[in-house]
Design goal:
Two copies of one chain form a homodimer. Chain A has about 280 residues and is of the alpha/beta class. The first copy, chain A, folds into two domains: about 170 residues, Rossmann fold (3-Layer(aba) Sandwich); about 100 residues, 6-phosphogluconate dehydrogenase C-terminal like domain (6-phosphogluconate dehydrogenase C-terminal fold, Orthogonal Bundle). Chain A has eleven helices and nine strands. In chain A, the strands form two sheets. A six-stranded parallel beta sheet of chain A has the order 3-2-1-4-5-6. In chain A, strands 7-8-9 form a three-stranded mixed beta sheet, covered by helices on one side. Chains A and B meet through helix 7, helix 8, helix 9, helix 10 and helix 11 of A and helix 7, helix 8, helix 9, helix 10 and helix 11 of B.
């Protein structure tokens, strides 16, 4: 990574703010674009960014050597359709989107000559939002996933890998877009769908005094940013629907074992889940 | 609680062992009955109990002033049917069972004259088992629930409350058996059913390197004692089936919102779950 490069963050929220903070700490020059003037003023005051603009930002875009788009997918597509032509040849950029299919190739198709989009996903969300909370995001234990396509060059892939290292990620891997979205549909979105459904099933607020760790652990992620997650769910809907179906089959199998007093069947499910869960323990 | 009383633990496993340890620490005399000679020998060596028997234990039963049954419900019923008549008048006993309906009144009906059963449930399970692990059980943050019936006396209810305090529980409440089992069906059993189903849905062991906190939190309790949980699930099957049905309706509602691209419907579910989950936060 070249410290002479101008870095630009588009979307200075929780993740964009954390990228700005870590890049500035590492000695890079960082500007930002955000629609919220207060976020920009706060980030300048804190020294997260050198400058920021909510409008008239064309010069920031055309001067940028490296850009990070920290926007919702729909906004990212719309924004790039309008302003992507301003990027200069040699500009490489990445994103933070939690879904990739239907986004990455579309953005790549919009890139001017000499401009490259290498997609990536920092799996480090939190229940909070806003640049003011970004200092609390912890990248070190999180996964950073690079999702290259046939269009990408080794140079761009190498850059985003070094970016992830600079940001403090310890676990950096590569998947293609389809693999990424299937994995996300299971390990992240299905978990959120379950936690939300558990809270929506009925009003059990009165039970809060009886809940133990299991209930609390299962529903912690039911506190959820409604706009962002509706967007992510719909963007990846086919994978998520498939996962909901597979999960529902397993749950109905358990219900059937209960109805028929099939103790052996229940015990088999418990032994299977115990064995499979053990593979995850090493990282607990 | 009277320190002259002879305490007896029947079933010296994880919970029975912890009861023995805490009662002995508090200055009570504790004997134990267990089918495993090694558990008894270990507990005597560690000073958890004064003496223990795997057979020929009739004198231990008839000398006991206070008994704690730390057995699975089916074993508890069978054991008491065979040996309950040995209890002496004035003997008060409790249990640790995670389900109450179909157990408490049945045991009470078997009690000899002057012998009283006051049921209770220490909500402090762990993924481990065995007396050797009982020192790691932490009662302080857990709920202790007393489930009296019309048969119970204030004296027995007062005793089990003081027992819970002696064991270190900070949060002691009272429910009737039906309320208890409904609550357990939701906050504990449904959570375990979901976690197990999530692991059984397909073999995702290869995804372990991508999982974040949400998946890990959701599936921690999928490591499960197969015999004990099959027993508890079947014992409370109607409540659990009802909860599975309610949860499935909410999950299918979410799936339907995905199919129909109903962003507003998804956002409404997310806002509802966020608001409800907030009521649980105070205790996180």
């Amino acid at each position: 990574m070249n410290k002479q490069h101008n870095y630009l963050i588009v979307g200075l929220g929780l993740l964009g703010g954390k990228y700005a903070l870590e890049l500035t700490r590492a000695g890079y020059t960082v500007d930002a674009i955000d629609q919220n003037e207060q976020s920009l003023a706060w980030a300048m005051e804190q020294g997260y960014i050198r400058s920021g603009k909510a409008c008239d930002f064309e010069a920031l875009v055309s001067n940028a050597d490296r850009i990070i788009f920290a926007l919702y997918p729909t906004t990212f597509l719309a924004w790039f359709g309008q302003y992507g032509h301003l990027c200069k040849p040699g500009c490489i950029f990445t994103d933070v989107s939690g879904v990739k299919t239907g986004l990455v190739e579309e953005i790549q198709a919009l890139c001017p000559a000499g401009v490259e989009f290498i997609a990536s996903h920092p799996m480090a969300g939190r229940e909070t939002s806003g640049v003011q909370n970004s200092v609390h995001v912890n990248f070190a234990p999180a996964n950073f996933i690079i999702t290259p396509t046939a269009q990408n060059t080794p140079q761009a892939i190498g850059w985003v890998r070094r970016l992830a290292q600079t940001l403090g990620f310890h676990h950096i891997t590569t998947l293609n877009c389809a693999e990424h979205d299937r994995m996300i549909g299971y390990v992240s979105q299905l978990c959120h769908a379950i936690a939300v459904s558990l809270m929506c099933a009925n009003d059990n607020t009165s039970l809060s005094e009886y809940t133990g760790d299991s209930f609390r652990d299962l529903t912690r992620i039911a506190k959820i940013n409604d706009k962002m997650w509706a967007e992510l769910f719909l963007w990846n809907k086919q994978n998520l629907i498939d996962e909901i179906d597979q999960f529902s089959i397993a749950l109905q199998q358990m219900k059937q074992a209960l109805i028929t007093d099939d103790r052996t069947g229940l015990e088999e499910m418990f032994r299977l889940s115990t064995a499979r869960r053990a593979a995850f323990d090493k990282k607990d």
